[in-house]
Design brief:
Blueprint lengths: L2 H26 L5 E7 H7 L10 E6 L3 E7 L4 E7 L10 H30 L9 H28 L2 H6 L8 E8 L1 H22 L24
Length: 232
Amino acid sequence: MPAPQKKLLFCTAGVLSLACALGTAAAVGTQLWVRGSILCSTGALLVNASGPELHKFIGHIQYGLFAGQRVRQCGLGGRPFQFSFFPDLLRIIPASIHVSVILFCTVLIVFALVGAGFFMFNAFGSPYETLHGPLGLYLWSFISCSCGCLIMILFSSEVKIHHLSEKIANFKEGTFTFKTHSEQFANSFWTILVCSLVHFLNALLIRFAGFEFPFSKPKDSGTVTGAVDLMY
């Protein structure tokens, strides 16, 4: 592939990596990871609510990785309540999983920035070392994509398997019991998915630029290339 096209591909990949880093940082700071509704089952059972009356006992909840808010509905109007994960909810949530999600988000941001820098270096510089060259770009893209996948797996297990929304809804509730009525992942969660796909796309862009995937068998094993040739 001609050099100008390689530069264009590497610049495109660098811009995408930078956009992923910024998008992940913005996603971490929002409360738009999960949205749902919670049913005040105790209040609904007391008055035997059904049909349209049931809506008077359905509140709303949304949260991110650090904080969130819920609206408590028990038949007497909505009562908003703000909460934070640190340190209030650490006793009732799977703290190890939650901290791991935040840690992998940080790693994703760092390696996306590193990848963006090295993509630009490969576009306008003369890389000669493994971590600086195409093999390094494959490495940074693979790590970033893997971190994005781990974030989604861990957070999904925290929400669905450990019933995170229900635990938050019943936090400091002594009289009423709340159950999850509906629940869906919001914009920030899908931002992580998009970032993972973008890093996978970056790996394909490296291949389109003419560089073989790591550990692939070279076509001509007898040909010696690189800096070693300068020694002979």
